[in-house]
Amino acid sequence: MNNLNAIPLFISVGESPNLTAAGERLGLTASAVSKAVTRLEEELGQRLIHRTTRKIRLTEEGLAFLERCRHILNEVAEAEAEVAHTRATPHGRLRVQMPIGFGRIVVAPALGEFTKRYPELVLDVEMSDRIVDIATEGKDAALHIGEVRDSRVIARKLCALRFVTCASPEYLAKHGEPQIPEDLEQHRCLGYFIPQAGHYREWNFEREGERIAMPVSGCLNVNNAESILDAAIAGAGIAHMATFVAAEAVRQGKLKIVLRQFASVGPNVSVLYLPNKHMSPRIRALVDFLSTLVPAEPSWDRILTAA
User: Fold this and answer.
1) C-alpha span between 98 and 129 (Å, rounded)
2) Which neighbouring-strand residues pair with 142?
3) Shortest CA distance to 134 belongs to which of 69, 70, 65?
4) How far, in Å, are 72, 82, 83, 126, 175 from residue 77 at the CA level?
């Protein structure tokens, strides 16, 4: 391949839904992008994309080539960082994915301070609850809740989530407080629906060192923690949510914790990134920032021991 400019061009094509979108991303017309890809295909002797008027679909060879192109660009970026002695100030584009609830409630309020601290960084944040493959998707890092099954990444634990069961004082005055987890069967519960799996998130409790997992669905089931929080505050029922979601409402007296003695430790929150002998300054800046923002014993867990 004689023209290395074809590498970032093909990455843009592979990450875009159609040639028009790829052209807008590159500052070119769709026709120019199509011709450039055709020249690349002729040079490689392989068809890389299936073209239709509405969308781009990569061939098997195109998918493999896209992954190699991303790897090459990452290697070039790391080589530039080493040659430049990695520069004292983090710079460049930082692509990060994080779960919606944790990202919006915990991380997003602090991102303004992060960008002020590192003005030469451009931060691209994707908030979604999907599992991201940072090794192949071009992400620099991701926040992950739960077990890390990808052996290709480094996982730095930030904290362990803890969950509380709570309801509004008005609801509890009307319906009474559950004394043991089994009492929830007599209450209106607010469940967390997981559309991808087609089931509801279990409510986890701990009794005498033994974990109890209860599948709960109720009068309202939503795949968004903040919406469940709003419904609980409005008196719709009892909710089971992470302490970082419930903390402010509990402090303000809008929610009251029940079954406090049965609270259990939940999954870990980790920041994931790819191993490299020379961690880039932008990733190091992010990891250090998140480690300070989310300590091992976060402040929102104090509602578990507050009177």
Assistant:
1) 7
2) 97, 272
3) 70
4) 9, 9, 10, 21, 60
The DSSP string of the chain is ---TTHHHHHHHHHTSSSHHHHHHHHTS-HHHHHHHHHHHHHHHTS--EEE-SS-EEE-HHHHHHHHHHHHHHHHHHHHHHHHTTT-SS--EEEEEEE-HHHIIIIIHHHHHHHHHH-TTEEEEEEE-SSPP-HHHH--SEEEEES----TTSEEEEEEEEEEEEEE-HHHHHHH---SSGGGGGGS-EEEEEETTTTEEPEEEEEETTEEEEEE---SEEES-HHHHHHHHHTTS-EEEEEHHHHHHHHHTTSSEEESGGG--EEEEEEEEE---SS--HHHHHHHHHHHHHS-SS-GGGGGGT--
Average pLDDT per block of 10 residues along the chain, 307 residues long:
79 87 88 90 90 81 90 79 63 93 96 94 93 89 92 93 96 96 94 82 90 86 92 96 96 96 92 83 93 94 85
Alpha carbon 56 to chain centroid, angstroms:
26
Q: Which residue has the tokens 């080539």?
A: 65
- How would you label 148-167 residue by residue, b for 16+ Cβ within 10 Å and e otherwise? eeeeebbbeebbebbbbbbb
How far apart, in Å, are the Cα atoms of 14 and each of 2, 5, 137? 20, 15, 11
**Which structure tokens are listed for 149?**
């099954």
For residue 93, CA distances in Å to 120, 126, 132, 290, 302 come to 9, 13, 18, 17, 36
